[in-house]
């Protein structure tokens, strides 16, 4: 086992699959010689050559069109969108085309594509670099949306995503790229897409979350524990499809829940989780299921980011509201 | 037959130059009609902008500026083209094109606020016809066709000019913008500053086309490749493009051949991963300031004394602008909520109250 950051685990997963499967191709803007603007593909072109790992011209719609076409001819594309805010340039390619390939052809064709992209706030990027657009993606039928929160999960989920025969949007939170290391097996392993993970057990309250907010929620849980409140923290890991079995089972035990997301409130993943809890466990609830979210503005300019983003204090406060209901 | 057509087209796009690297006039017929004062003003702006670039880089390193994309090497391309504009003309810049909008009237401290990610950086004064620097590569290009058509329909004698890079010329929006402007004969100028790289990707990897200028042909608009290190050539080409645009003789694509000396942005780019120092040297020999300085000195229009005056002025202005930037009230989340809509919808009204209460504590 080796100690890896999340970005190292991501590189490791791509290297593993480039070795395993000659049809795997990695491409995007600056992913070749430069190794990606975050160095996620560092060394891969050198190791596997320019036919397997390559730069594209600067056009996101071109990149996803290329991925769809290569997918149709037997390849397994791992395409990068340099920052996920740029996905707007290719909403059609992603949500209109690759998401529907299987459906439109009655199962005859498919898009075995992984769309990797950095996203998420807290690192003071310029506009349209940090947005939380997972809700938009989760609303597109035909896409799976994966968001790891740890190096271990990142490797196993990325391997599963690349091997998946349907398109997977794999979102990498920029703040987590190098924020900590943990043990990651050097050998290959996969984590099933669509399975949540209980990151902390507790009996008093369920906190459902994903991405960087997993760590914010864990910090909040520590603080709550000091006051005798034991929170269970569930990391969804996949926001489409949602693992409601794990969530509902936990809620049946704790009878209270909050959902924590970094994204704005309106029409998001959190709303969907709340609705599903109501559908499946309403008679087990002792309090309404509340949300911790960002406000419904455009992602803020860098100088206001720290106040805009939800923090562990917001989580503690909302948890207590539910506990004291 | 088809290959022959391509060869013929490509043969038409030789680089337009007026001043060579030695500061000598090589194209007398094309020399623009500029007064001595105007020539000096052009030099002054280039020197000023180079100092500003150096200060911006060091302020960024001290954590006092925020997002910054260096401009050294592109002064002639940026400022020569802006100098050919009238105040009523609109500029739609990319993220690197801050000098053009500042010389078009945007106060320097607002450019700094933009860098820091403060919304007041985007609240342009009424008389400044420009948009905020665009982050999404290509988005400004299609909008330019719209602004240009609007100006024409409103009976204005002005143009819309936009800037992108060699990488930006690969975006679908680039073709769409040129095509729309051509279809409506809208008074637009599309400048592609070909600084040879899109972050790490060399221009040769962007396209099979030998020049970017030739892409104008398919859109049915004018196209020219210009020496982007030659401020007189850039000025003259833009001036002509402007005249054509307002006279109804069609939009123009200008490809300016230049180089960015610095890193792509100050956020961790390392040019040694993708460029050789030989290439850097080759381009620095063509430096726009060096050659224009030589030319002006030969005409007795420039001196060390004049240069130093500009340098001091630039440093003082930057210091004052940074002070003003520091003194601007911090932006609050409630401010950001308020600028979302003309009339706030109910969810935001509630959130506005929540944040105001939080902020008052
Ligand atoms: C739609 C979009 N895709 C990708 C990026 C990321 N990005 C920023 S600058 C850049 C390279 C641009 O190169 P070029 O157009 O040549 O302009 P230059 O930076 O050289 O001035 C890239 C890929 C972006 N900002 N927007
Ligand atoms: Mg460029």
In short:
The complex is a heterodimer of chains A (325) and B (361). Chain A is of the alpha/beta class. Chain A is built from 12 helices and 14 strands.
What's the helix and strand layout?
The complex is a heterodimer of chains A (325) and B (361).
Chain A: E1 2-4, H1 6-20, E2 24-28, H2 44-48, E3 53-55, H3 60-72, E4 76-80, H4 91-97, H5 101-104, E5 114-119, H6 134-138, E6 144-146, H7 151-163, E7 168-173, E8 182-184, E9 197-200, E10 205-209, H8 213-226, E11 231-235, E12 238-240, H9 244-254, E13 257-264, H10 269-281, E14 290-294, H11 305-308, H12 312-323
Parallel strand pairs in A: 2-3, 2-4, 4-5, 5-7, 6-7, 10-11, 10-13, 13-14
Antiparallel strand pairs in A: 1-8, 6-12, 9-11
Helix pairs in contact in A: 1-7, 3-4, 8-12, 9-10
Chain B: H1 2-11, H2 36-61, H3 75-83, E1 90-92, H4 98-103, H5 108-116, H6 139-153, E2 160-165, H7 172-183, E3 188-194, E4 197-198, E5 201-202, H8 215-219, E6 222-227, H9 231-246, E7 252-257, H10 277-284, H11 288-298, H12 304-327, H13 333-338, H14 346-360
Parallel strand pairs in B: 1-2, 2-3, 3-7, 6-7
Antiparallel strand pairs in B: 4-5
Magnesium ion binds next to strand 4 of chain B.
Please tell me about this protein's structure.
The complex is a heterodimer of chains A (325) and B (361). Chain A has 325 residues and is α/β, with parallel strands linked by helices. Chain A contains 12 helices and 14 strands. In chain A, helix 3 packs parallel to helix 4, helix 8 packs across helix 12 and helix 9 crosses helix 10. The relative contact order of chain A is 0.12. Chain B has 361 residues and is an alpha/beta fold. Chain B has 14 helices and 7 strands. In chain B, the strands form 2 sheets. Chain B has a 5-stranded parallel sheet, with helices on both faces. A two-stranded antiparallel ribbon of chain B has the order 4-5. In chain B, helix 3 runs parallel beside helix 9 and helix 5 packs across helix 12. Chain B is globular and about 70 Å long. In chain B, 49% of the residues are buried. Classes of the chains: A alpha/beta (325), B alpha/beta (361). At the A-B interface, helix 11 of A face helix 13 and helix 14 of B. Thiamine diphosphate sits at the interface of chains B and A.
């Amino acid at each position: 086992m080796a100690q890896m950051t999340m970005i190292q685990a991501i590189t490791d997963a791509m290297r593993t699959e480039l070795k395993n499967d000659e049809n795997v191709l990695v491409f995007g803007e600056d992913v070749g010689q430069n190794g990606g603007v975050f160095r996620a593909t560092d060394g891969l072109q050198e190791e596997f050559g320019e036919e397997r790992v390559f730069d594209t011209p600067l056009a996101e719609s071109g990149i996803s069109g290329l991925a769809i076409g290569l997918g149709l001819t037997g390849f397994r594309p791992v395409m990068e969108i340099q920052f996920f805010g740029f996905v707007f340039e290719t909403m059609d390619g992603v949500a209109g085309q690759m998401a529907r390939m299987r459906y439109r052809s009655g199962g005859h064709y498919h898009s075995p594509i992984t769309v990797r992209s950095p996203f998420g706030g807290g690192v003071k990027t310029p506009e349209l670099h940090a947005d939380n657009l997972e809700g938009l993606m989760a609303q597109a039928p035909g896409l799976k949306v994966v968001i790891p929160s740890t190096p271990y999960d990142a490797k196993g989920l990325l391997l599963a995503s690349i091997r998946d025969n349907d398109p997977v949007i794999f979102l990498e939170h920029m703040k987590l790229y190098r924020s900590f290391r943990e043990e990651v097996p050097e050998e290959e392993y996969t984590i099933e897409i669509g399975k949540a993970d209980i990151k902390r057990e507790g009996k008093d309250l369920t906190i459902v979350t994903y991405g960087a907010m997993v760590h914010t929620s864990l910090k909040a849980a520590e603080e709550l524990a000091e006051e005798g409140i034991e929170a269970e923290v569930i990391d969804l890991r996949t926001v489409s499809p949602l693992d409601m079995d794990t969530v509902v089972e936990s809620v049946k035990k704790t009878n209270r829940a909050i959902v924590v997301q970094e994204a704005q409130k309106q029409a998001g993943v959190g709303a969907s989780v709340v609705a599903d809890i109501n559908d499946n466990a309403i008679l087990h609830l002792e309090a309404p299921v509340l949300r911790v979210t960002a406000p419904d503005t455009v992602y803020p300019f860098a100088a206001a980011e720290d106040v805009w983003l939800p923090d562990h204090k917001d989580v503690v406060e909302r948890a207590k509201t539910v506990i004291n209901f | 037959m088809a290959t022959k057509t391509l060869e013929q087209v490509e043969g038409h796009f030789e680089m337009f130059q007026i001043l060579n690297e030695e500061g000598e006039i090589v194209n007398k017929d094309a020399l623009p009609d500029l007064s001595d004062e105007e020539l000096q003003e052009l030099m002054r702006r280039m020197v000023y902008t180079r100092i500003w670039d150096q200060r911006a880089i060091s302020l960024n390193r001290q954590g006092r500026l925020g997002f910054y994309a260096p401009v050294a090497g592109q002064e002639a391309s940026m400022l020569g083209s802006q100098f050919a504009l009238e105040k009523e003309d609109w500029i739609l810049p990319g993220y690197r094109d801050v000098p053009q909008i500042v010389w078009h009237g945007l106060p320097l401290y607002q450019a700094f606020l933009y860098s820091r990610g403060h919304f007041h950086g985007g609240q342009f004064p009424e008389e400044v016809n420009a948009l905020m620097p665009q982050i999404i590569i290509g988005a400004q290009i299609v909008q330019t066709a719209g602004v240009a058509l609007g100006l024409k329909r409103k009976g204005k004698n002005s143009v819309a000019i936009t800037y992108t890079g060699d990488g930006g010329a690969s975006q679908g929006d680039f073709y769409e913008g040129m095509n729309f402007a051509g279809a409506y004969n809208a008074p637009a100028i599309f400048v592609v500053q070909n600084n040879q790289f899109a972050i790490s990707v060399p221009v040769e990897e962007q396209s099979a086309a030998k020049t970017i200028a030739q892409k104008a042909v398919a859109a049915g608009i004018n196209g020219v490749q210009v020496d982007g290190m030659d401020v007189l050539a850039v000025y003259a080409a833009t001036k002509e493009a402007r005249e054509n645009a307002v006279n109804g003789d069609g939009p123009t694509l200008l490809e300016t051949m230049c180089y960015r000396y610095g890193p792509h942005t100050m956020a961790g780019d390392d040019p040694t991963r993708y460029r050789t120092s030989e290439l850097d040297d080759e381009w620095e020999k063509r430096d726009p300031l060096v050659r224009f300085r030589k030319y002006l000195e030969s005409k007795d229009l420039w001196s060390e004394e004049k240069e130093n005056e500009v340098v001091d002025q630039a440093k003082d202005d930057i210091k004052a602008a940074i002070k003003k930037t520091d003194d601007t009230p911090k932006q609050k989340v409630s401010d950001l909520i308020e600028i979302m809509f003309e009339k706030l919808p109910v969810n935001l009204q509630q959130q506005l109250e929540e944040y105001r209460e939080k902020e008052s504590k």
